[in-house]
UniProtKB/TrEMBL annotation:
Enzyme type, top EC level: isomerase
The PurE domain, residue ranges: 16-167
Name this polypeptide is given: N5-carboxyaminoimidazole ribonucleotide mutase
Gene name in the database record: purE
General function of this protein: Catalyzes the conversion of N5-carboxyaminoimidazole ribonucleotide (N5-CAIR) to 4-carboxy-5-aminoimidazole ribonucleotide (CAIR).
Pathway(s): Purine metabolism; IMP biosynthesis via de novo pathway; 5-amino-1-(5-phospho-D-ribosyl)imidazole-4-carboxylate from 5-amino-1-(5-phospho-D-ribosyl)imidazole (N5-CAIR route): step 2/2
Species whose genome carries this gene: Candidatus Segetimicrobium genomatis
Regions of compositional bias (Low complexity) in chain numbering: 189-203
């Protein structure tokens, strides 16, 4: 997507309803999981790069374009001093889901704290770091959209039922009777009388 001009929706094409914003193109490999997950649910989305720190004007323009273009939920992913999600949340009333990424070798803890510790009044729904977060951000976005979409709620129910079935299959695999060796009786240690008798016979 051309991130320099947000001109509005094309009426003939159903527009994206989720915006995934990356702090840098280097975040893309991890965040492709979010895009894949949205596609699983048939949710149209856009993937853009904009940084609160490096391109504040671009981020500003993007944040002010989303509502009018039909975006309903934002997912913001950034590493390090990750202020991207908070900066978006400051500029729109749409729900913002933050995905903290590991960009600095601190395991994403820096990004997690920067994303989650928002002051009262400006929430960012922060999910786990990295690819778990990428997947959960997308599922959470679907759940938010499903609040007003019964068909999507049905698809979420199927998704959860499939997950449960997989775990039940695993559990069944574990509870199959294991092949055990024929039980032997407890080994009796020889009595002191037997030991004494075997010593006597060996003399
Ligand atoms: P580069 O790989 O481009 O140097 O970026 C990005 O999300 C990325 O994980 C390194 C990391 O910097 C992050 N970044 C932020 C912000 N902008 C970029 N945390 C921001 O505005 O919060």
């Amino acid at each position: 997507m051309d991130t320099t001009s947000f001109r509005g929706p094309r009426p003939e094409v159903p527009g994206p309803v989720v915006g995934i914003v990356l702090g840098s193109d280097s975040d893309r490999p991890v965040m492709e999981e979010a895009a894949r997950t949205l596609a699983e649910f048939g949710i149209a989305h856009e993937l853009v790069v904009a940084s609160a720190h490096r391109s504040p004007d671009l981020l500003d323009r993007y944040a002010h374009s989303v509502e009018a273009r039909g975006i309903r939920v934002l997912i913001a992913a950034a590493g390090g001093a990750a202020h991207l999600a908070g900066a978006l949340a400051a500029r729109t009333v749409l729900p913002v889901i933050g995905v903290p990424l590991d960009a600095t070798g601190l395991g994403g803890l820096d990004a997690l704290l920067s994303t989650v510790q928002m002051p009262p009044g400006v929430p960012v729904a922060t999910v786990s770091t990295g690819s778990w977060g990428a997947r959960n951000a997308a599922i959470l976005a679907v759940q938010m959209l499903a609040a007003s979409d019964p068909d999507l709620r049905e698809r979420l129910r199927e998704f959860k039922a499939n997950m449960a079935r997989k775990i039940e299959d695993m559990a069944q695999g574990l509870s199959k009777p294991a092949v055990t060796a024929r039980p032997e009786g407890p080994k009796q240690s020889p009595s002191s009388e037997e030991i004494a008798s075997s010593l006597r016979s060996s003399q």
